[in-house]
Design brief:
The complex is a heterotrimer of chains A (about 325), B (about 140) and C (about 290).
Chain A lengths: L9 H5 L8 E3 L2 E3 L1 H18 L6 H14 L2 H14 L7 H14 L3 H14 L6 H14 L3 H11 L6 H17 L3 H15 L3 H14 L6 H10 L3 H5 L3 H25 L4 H47 L2
Helix pairs in contact in A: 3-4, 4-5, 5-6, 6-7, 7-8, 7-9, 8-9, 9-10, 9-11, 10-11, 12-15, 14-15
Chain B lengths: L1 H11 L5 H12 L20 H18 L12 H12 L1 H14 L31
Helix pairs in contact in B: 3-4, 4-5
Chain C lengths: L1 H17 L6 H11 L3 H15 L6 H15 L3 H13 L4 H17 L3 H14 L3 H17 L3 H12 L4 H18 L6 H10 L3 H5 L3 H23 L3 H48 L1
Helix pairs in contact in C: 2-3, 3-4, 4-5, 5-6, 6-7, 6-8, 7-8, 8-9, 9-10, 10-14, 11-14, 13-14
Classes of the chains: A mainly alpha (about 325), B mainly alpha (about 140), C mainly alpha (about 290).
Chain lengths: ~325, ~140, ~290
């Protein structure tokens, strides 16, 4: 259905001397009071249609509504529109910049969110949102997986943060960045030195324990796995708890080697069967050694990832 | 007269001419025809190394004439031949063949428990090939 | 009598002006954005209108939700589109408008591949709508949905309902479509079960029956080769190798051949259906 805006305006129809005089409509005279009564609902409704949607206050109301609804990117656009339309004497720009930054952060556009937090920091050094802006930038780097950048940013700016509570959280975030980079020894050292100086509390102790667990994970040795597979095919994989894969490798290599041996035994070097099965056997044998070493890497990674999952669950609650 | 005008207003807003637009919209967004998901192999003859091309070509021929006749027994979402071609293409002949050999030995029905399972197909997820490249990341 | 006459005339003016959007900036802007294809901004402006007018009794709300649905539809955001259309249906003032919106929702469902839900909606409109043009439109799209789902009988019946009140020049088109649908109903499909059985007896014959000569010959050759290996090993008393070649090779290719034969027959049937559907839709689109 195509919406067709109709050009009729009740005020024009009723006449220019509305509403005090009687007017002529469709060749009949009609009482002005009767006309007022008829058209009153129209004017009540018209008030809503006449509402100024684009006044700064209404733009802000709408932006807050979109934010509450979870339509963050749209909300960010509206907050920016509010800044554009509001007067230059508006002093609360820092709160709006901060809000826009949060919108982009929730909308997962971390780069843009950081830009707006930087605006708060550079333009409003006395702002109430300054501390939180620093924290959000550090979080954004962390969520983007840029752990080194997060650490260097925090190292440079943590002393500027006034709130002791936020400073503590940022210290913990530095340690978390080490943990997520799997630098367990550094993380452990950091948390223990931090504990001694700052007395970070139970959450810091928890993170320190995670770091220590990371150091003490029961990792496997790549060299040992490779060596075992070279001696007895499949045992390297069994060493990594992949018993089924190891057994399958053993059977496959065993069968092909046996067939190759049978072939060469019967017909010597000219045995076609020997060469075919021998090539296949060597192919699987080398692949098995390679696979055993890779299996160790994967095993060690999985151990670390499982620990990081636990860390992730813990910090979800804490870093809201 | 006024009621007639009212009814006319409602009905006139219903446009049957828009049926053509709606049909065109449906045809553009939902064209008839199966969308066969062909394995994206990035196989091209513009490969620099002849040896690489030969190995990839061999695997491709195997896919066309032999594995197409085989039962669908691969336990992984990303088939072994596709894995092999990708490995050779990305990491070269030697490393690619080692990775393919390892993959063939892992492709057994008993090893599914070591992987995450794709809920749609029930197959084990064993991708990307970078996980099996043995180098410091 | 003259006062009563004036009253009626003024009522019309009142009624008409409640539909006037000339005074509403947000709607005006939204329409302009929509018409220029800037759907993201049009949705923002429609949402702005809804936010400021949701507490008032505004007959435009249903229309605005509908336009949001159209904007999402054009962006192929099907879930948001369906939600918006559903809100539009809920806030519709009259049954006629509600039915119109249901048809719009059904069109979005057909475009996104949800044919059975679309058919269900369209049947409701066809059965209960009081506006003949809407019934006709619903019948048309029900026919389209049936064509997509290859339900030729239902498509034929729906096209009949649609064509009853159409102009004479369109009757030729419908005769053409009707004959195509009749042909589709009578088409001889390949039986997947028969294909499988044929391949069990002779590997590759099921694929050939389904028209897939390449795969059929390939299956025959591979099964012959692996079968030969197995028989050769048995005749040479190499029973272990015979077990190896039969288990790992012959059995796999033989079972593969059977399942491929079934798939070939199904693919043949699917291709045939798609050909008919494509022809019918091409004729409709051209007209």
């Amino acid at each position: 259905m195509k919406f067709v805006p109709l050009p009729i305006n009740p005020i024009q129809v009723a006449g220019t001397k509305f509403p005090l005089f009687s007017v002529k409509i469709f060749n009949s005279k009609i009482n002005a009071l009767f006309l007022c009564l008829l058209l009153m609902p129209q004017f009540l409704l018209a008030n809503n249609y006449q509402e100024n949607y684009y006044s700064p206050e209404n733009i802000l109301r709408f932006a807050n509504h979109l934010y509450k609804e979870g339509d963050y990117i749209r909300a960010a656009g509206e907050f920016q529109r509010y800044l554009f339309y509001s007067s230059e004497r508006l002093t609360a720009r820092d709160s709006i910049y901060h809000k826009i930054g949060r919108c982009y952060q929730f909308g997962k556009d971390f780069q843009k969110s950081m830009n707006y937090f930087h605006k708060v920091i550079f333009n409003y050094p006395q702002s109430d949102y300054l501390d939180d802006s620093y924290c959000q930038i550090a979080y954004s780097h962390f969520f983007l997986g840029k752990y080194k950048e997060s650490i260097s940013f925090l190292d440079a700016n943590i002393s500027i943060i006034k709130s002791a509570k936020m400073r503590l959280k940022m210290q913990q975030l530095i340690g978390l960045n080490y943990i997520y980079q799997k630098q367990w020894a550094k993380a452990t050292e950091f948390f223990y030195s931090f504990e001694e100086k700052e007395k970070g509390g139970s959450f810091t102790t928890l993170l320190a324990n995670f770091a220590k667990q990371g150091q003490q994970l029961p990792r496997k040795s790549k060299f040992l796995a490779g060596f075992m597979s070279a001696i007895i095919p499949g045992t390297g994989k069994m060493y990594c708890h992949r018993t089924a894969d190891g057994f399958f490798s053993l059977v496959t290599i065993g069968l092909t080697s046996w067939q190759a041996y049978e072939g060469f035994r019967k017909k010597g070097v000219s045995s076609v069967k020997g060469w075919i099965y021998g090539t296949i056997g060597v192919f699987f044998y080398l692949g098995n050694i390679y696979g055993s070493v890779v299996a160790v890497s994967i095993y060690n990674q999985q151990l670390e990832n499982e620990l990081l999952k636990k860390v992730g669950l813990t910090i979800n609650v804490y870093f809201k | 007269m006024s009621i007639g005008l009212l009814v006319f207003l409602i009905i006139s807003t219903i446009s049957l001419g828009q049926v053509d637009d709606d049909l065109a919209f449906i045809l553009i967004n939902n064209p008839i025809g199966t969308k066969i998901e062909k394995e994206s192999l990035n196989f091209s003859f513009s490969e620099v190394s002849e040896f690489k091309l030969a190995i990839m070509g061999f695997i491709r021929l195997y896919q066309l004439f032999i594995s197409s006749q085989d039962k669908s027994v691969c336990n992984f979402t990303f088939s072994c031949s596709r894995f092999g071609i990708s490995a050779v293409q990305k990491y070269g002949v030697l490393r690619g063949l080692l990775m393919a050999s390892d993959r063939l030995q892992r492709c057994n029905g008993f090893g599914k428990k070591y992987y995450l399972i794709d809920s749609n197909t029930g197959l084990a997820i064993d991708y990307p090939i970078d996980s099996y490249y043995l180098a410091k990341k | 009598m003259s006062i009563l006459n004036n009253f009626f005339q003024l009522s019309i003016i009142l009624f008409l002006t409640t539909f006037s959007a000339a005074d509403d900036l947000a709607l005006d802007l939204a329409e302009k954005f929509f018409n220029s294809g800037n759907y993201y901004n049009s949705i923002t402006e429609y949402k702005r209108f809804i936010f400021f007018n949701s507490n008032t009794k505004n007959d435009n709300l249903s229309y605005v939700h509908y336009k949001i649905g159209l904007a999402y539809r054009n962006q192929k955001k099907w879930q948001e589109c369906i939600n918006a259309f559903q809100k539009s249906i809920q806030t519709a003032a009259t049954e006629g408008i509600r039915d119109e919106r249901k048809i719009a929702l059904a069109i979005a469902l057909i475009a996104s591949g949800h044919y059975s839900t679309a058919e269900f909606l369209l049947i409701k409109v066809e059965m209960f709508s009081r506006i003949p043009k809407l019934k006709q439109k619903a019948a048309f799209f029900r026919a389209i949905s049936a064509v997509y789902s290859f339900k030729w009988n239902q498509a034929r019946e729906a096209f009949h309902s649609y064509s009853i009140n159409t102009k004479n020049e369109s009757q030729e088109t419908f005769k053409q479509i009707d004959s195509l649908l009749a042909e589709a109903q009578d088409v001889k499909y390949k039986s997947p079960k028969l294909a499988k059985m044929l391949s069990t007896i002779l590997p590759g014959s099921g694929q050939i029956y389904a028209g897939d000569w390449g795969n059929g010959v390939n299956a025959l050759l591979i099964n012959a080769a692996t079968g030969y290996l197995f028989v050769n090993d048995v005749l040479n008393h190499q029973y272990l190798m015979a077990i190896f070649s039969s288990l790992f090779l012959f059995q796999r290719f033989y079972s593969g051949n059977k399942s491929n034969a079934e798939k070939s027959a199904k693919k043949y049937n699917e291709r045939k259906n798609q050909l008919f559907a494509a022809k019918i839709l091409e004729i409709l689109n051209a007209k």
